[in-house]
Amino acid sequence: MKVRNTFAALLGASLLGAMGSRGAAQPGGFAYPWYSFKREGQSVTGSDFEVEVSPPRNSIKTWTARRRRMTRNGEATDWIDGGACPTLTERMATLKALEPLTIRMPGDAGIGVVLDGELYTLKALVYFPREKSGGDMTLTGNVDTPLAKWVEDTMKALKSCWQDKAPE
What we know:
168 residues; alpha+beta; 6-stranded antiparallel beta sheet; globular
């Protein structure tokens, strides 16, 4: 029995350690984000960034977003309090309207490859509606994709919502 308890304690500690800062409370009550999206690339459309978004749950009453980006002075972090910026809630709701993907198979026609430009990434919690079970999804795309359009439109819509201070 002692071996099983020791194993369970070690497993729990390693899982918590693997979660790192994603599982820990962050400034402003920011917890494990359910969504993140980022742009990184080689063109001149703007600087790279990553935005993590946490929905309302438990003691957090509104959507919260944290953006990390590189500036001339190093890494900068800013925040959105969804209570002060309802646009955050509105933009996150539009995720469900992203055009569905089709699995690529050998021989599929009309699929081009872009070797440079911007890379857009979306990570989200997802589920299979019929089974009511789910997991995580990572979607990547280049310029001129529905994902790129969603990220750019979202950043444009949220432009006036960013603030230096984390929400309370």
